[in-house]
Amino acid sequence: MATTLRTSDQSCTDTGIFVRQLRHLLELTQAQFAVKLGVATPTIARWENNRSQPSPLALMQLKAMLHELKNSPHKVQQICAQALLVEYFDEEI
């Protein structure tokens, strides 16, 4: 099963916003987030600034992070993770 972000007229912009939202939800710097994903720090900056898009493998990792956050002991993280899954991956609640 392929993992892709929901497409829209503004999918590039949406991807940058999504990556930034997830990183902030995890309370990580771009450098910390890059290490977690196994990519270079400038890659995160390019994703957030819409100069490039995450690969399908990176999208799978991002989606997996959201699923992990759904089980967080912090209710806000649970709610935000679920909202991001619905908004960007068309997952039902």
Automatic annotation (TrEMBL):
Gene3D superfamilies: lambda repressor-like DNA-binding domains. SUPFAM superfamilies: lambda repressor-like DNA-binding domains (SSF47413). InterPro entries: Cro/C1-type_HTH, Lambda_DNA-bd_dom_sf. GO terms for molecular function: DNA binding. PROSITE patterns: HTH_CROC1. Residues 19-62 form the HTH cro/C1-type domain. This is Helix-turn-helix domain-containing protein. It comes from Cyanomargarita calcarea GSE-NOS-MK-12-04C.
